[in-house]
Amino acid sequence: xxxxxxxxxxxxxxxxxxxxxxxxxxxxxxxxxxxxxxxxxxxxxxxxxxxxxxxxxxxxxxxxxxxxxxxxxxxxxxxxxxxxxxxxxxxxxxxxxxxxxxxxxxxxxxxxxxxxxxxxxxxxxxxxxxxxxxxxxxxxxxxxx
Length: 145
Fold this sequence. Notes:
Layout (H helix, E strand, L loop, with lengths): L15 E5 L5 H13 L15 E5 L10 H4 L1 E5 L6 E5 H7 L1 H11 L5 H7 L2 E3 L13 E2 L5
Parallel strand pairs: 1-2, 1-6, 2-5
Antiparallel strand pairs: 3-4
């Protein structure tokens, strides 16, 4: 009789990867990152276990967006007070906080529950080429996108 193997949280072995976002398309890059954060690239993937790896993204400010998204896409936030709804275009957001744009896209592709929030904690994004995770000895990951 064959049985389905369910990965247990203690069996998970995680790696650290560095991805250079320079010249990469925002949507295609974020789907690949979400795929790795969930652990779907591993043969031991289980939907109910966080088996993904750690991802460090550098050069988020040099990401590429196609079409007219720079002018048309907006990020909305609200303070909770009447009339305090704020809209920011993608162009402004890339100038102010370029790591937010990629983080927002990746977070939207993860599950909307406690497991998804735990997966998102393994994601680190930096606007420039430097990061502070040298001690983890991350591997450089090249994505074919």
